[in-house]
Structure formats: structure tokens, C-alpha cells
Design a protein that fits this description.
- The chain is mostly helical and about 180 residues long.
- Helix content is about 65%, strand content about 0%.
- The protein is built from seven helices and no strands.
């Protein structure tokens, strides 16, 4: 037999517990989602490049920024072309692969030219930043692996300089000296 007071206390506990704001857990962005996002950016940049879009400056595109070998080959092809690009020539110069088909098909639906240009440069900056982060990771590993303090200091200076490039919002800041 439950007393009225005990029941009231239970109801009050329930009300207090449910008055707390509902905190939604942060969405966990999986590594796979990030990789898909990077690939999508690479496909789009390569698509705009092979289509010879007027806002694409092939000198701004660095082959090393692309980690997908087939896309690297496509970007190399674009950079090697003299004069106007003829997209049909890509099929005679590069073996047809599923990635080449994805590059040819990569677009953003129903958007203004202005938004497309912004998206293109956002993608290019994203690709550059991923590349710069990978360079930083390699330098950090070298720093861990070495016992030479002068070498460590030199590596830390390089990491700092590359980190500044990565954190910049400007594409023109993304280039390493050897690029």
C-alpha cells in the first residue's frame, strides 16, 4: 500500500528530472564522413578544372594537394593542357576509371554562378588545408623521432609557419615554398 505522500514525492522527482533541459549529444562526425567530404571537394575542383571554367586558374591548383591518385592524374592532365581545354580529350589521354566518371559528373545542383565560385574556392581551400595538416603531422612525427634538439627546434619552426598558412582564410597563403 503506497501512501499519498510517497506517491506525491515520486511524482515531484519525476517532474524535476524532466524539467532539466534536454541536451542533445554532439553529432559525431565520423572519419568516413570527413573522407567523403574531402573526396567530394576534390571531385568538384577537378570537374571545374576539366570543364575549363573561367574562374579556375590552373596555376592555383597544386597536384600534391590531391591524395586520390586518379584525381592527381586528372589535375596533372589539366595543368599540362595548352590553350582551351577540350573535355573530350581527357578520355583519350587518361584511362577511364570510376573516379574519372565521378569527376565528369561532379556538380552542385541549381546554384548561382556566384555561389558556385565561392563553393569552388571553399573546396580548394579545404583540400589545401588537409594537405597542410598532413605535412604538419609528418613534421610532428619527425620531431618525436629525433633526439637532436637543433633539428627539433627547426621542425617546430616549420610546423608553426605551416600552421599559420593552414589557419589563414586566403588561398594565396596556402602554398609552400616548393610549390
Amino acid at each position: 500500500h503506497v501512501t499519498r505522500d510517497a506517491l506525491k514525492r515520486e511524482v515531484d522527482k519525476y517532474k524535476v528530472a524532466h524539467k532539466q533541459p534536454i541536451v542533445k549529444p554532439k553529432e559525431d562526425v565520423s572519419k568516413r564522413d570527413i573522407e567523403k567530404s574531402i573526396l567530394k571537394a576534390q571531385l568538384f575542383v577537378a570537374n571545374r578544372a576539366i570543364n575549363g571554367c573561367s574562374y579556375v586558374n590552373k596555376d592555383e591548383i597544386v597536384i600534391d594537394w590531391f591524395d586520390e591518385p586518379n584525381i592527381r592524374e586528372i589535375i596533372r592532365w589539366v595543368k599540362d593542357q595548352k590553350g582551351e581545354l577540350i573535355i573530350g580529350n581527357i578520355y583519350s589521354d587518361i584511362p577511364q576509371t570510376p573516379i574519372l566518371d565521378k569527376v565528369v559528373e561532379a556538380t552542385i545542383p541549381n546554384t548561382s554562378r556566384e555561389k558556385e565560385i565561392v563553393f569552388y574556392y571553399d573546396c580548394l581551400i579545404k583540400i589545401a588545408n588537409i594537405y597542410l595538416q598532413n605535412v604538419i603531422n609528418e613534421l610532428r612525427q619527425k620531431c618525436i623521432d629525433t633526439d637532436n634538439q637543433d633539428e627539433k627546434n627547426n621542425l617546430l619552426i616549420q610546423i608553426s609557419l605551416i600552421n599559420k598558412k593552414k589557419n589563414s582564410k586566403l588561398l594565396s597563403d596556402k602554398y609552400l615554398d616548393e610549390q
